[in-house]
Amino acid sequence: MTVIVPELVVVENNNLDHKEEINKEEEVTKEEQQDLKRDGGFEVPESNAFGHSFRDYEKESERKESVEEFYRTNHINQTYEFAIKKKEYYEKLDKTEMSIWECCELLNEFVDESDPDLDEPQIEHLLQTAEAIRRDYPNEDWLHLTALIHDLGKVLLHPAFGHQPQWSVVGDTFPLGCAFDENIVHHQYFKENPDNDNPLYNTKLGVYTENCGLDKVTMSWGHDEYMYLVSKGNNTTLPPAALFIIRFHSFYAMHRSGAYRHLMNDEDHEMLKWLHVFNKYDLYSKSKVRVNQEEVKPYYLSLIEKYFPAKLKW
Ligand SMILES: [Fe+2]
Ligand SMILES: [Fe+2]
């Protein structure tokens, strides 16, 4: 099967200007940059499963401990079996019905108060990312919409929705059913993951074959995978590169560190170019560029209408 990947037109200079401009405008300090680093990495927590409040931290060391504790729990509990069960449960899409915009609003209700990296409503982050990309890639409307929806899977955290624990919604994602690569953040905690001792899952290829393609791979469960299932299950007409971005934007070991190349096929490499483009904007847009929501809303509603049904199953 041939997958059509939109051609990537490199706008390097444009991007550089944009970066400089944002950095100048926002005077992002080095310390703040540290906090901006990972979108899928560590975003939402107000309090984690252990009752630590991330907003209360006075000391950087406390924060680091909390983040580390988060990843310890994540790495111990994300097993091949766990991810498959979650996928089977959520891909039924029988939980509720709502539009993309309704989901944005639902997410807005609570994430804005809880994300130590974002002191603005979640929708601001989504629109900032989308608008920054739109400015540099005006013709790729699919990419603008991808930016708007990439984090909507976080509704799994919402008390009125999934109310799932943080460790199963946010954080870096990674393949299951094969060995954990040492480039995954806090790799040491996989020692306590039962899959690590299972000979079926602890070899380089595990249950996979060489260059089988990432679409064959079971990823750790989180907001990325969920939004991918929702998009696909509702027959979005977004191109494959959009689904690739949604599904793998927190897969830092792959797109940042170059790990797991042995599972990727040629199409993955093509789509990875777009993920790299997207990722730059996802990070930089966690700054204080204001977006006039009312002004841009009609544009995004028109994109939603173009690529999605009016009501989606979730
Ligand atoms: Fe994001
Ligand atoms: Fe994300």
UniProtKB/TrEMBL annotation:
Record's catalysed reaction(s): myo-inositol + O2 = D-glucuronate + H2O + H(+)
Subcellular location: Cytoplasm
One term under GO cellular component: cytoplasm
Enzyme superclass (EC): oxidoreductase
Annotated region (Disordered), positions in chain: 21-49
Free-text remark on how the cofactor is bound: Binds 2 iron ions per subunit.
UniProt KW Cytoplasm keyword: yes
Keywords: Ascorbate biosynthesis, Cytoplasm, Iron, Metal-binding, Oxidoreductase
Cofactor(s) recorded in Swiss-Prot or TrEMBL: Fe cation
Binding, Fe cation: 125, 150-151, 223, 249, 282
Pfam families in the cross-refs: MIOX
Ranges of compositional bias, category Basic and acidic residues: 21-41
Name under which the protein is recorded: Inositol oxygenase
Species whose genome carries this gene: Papaver somniferum
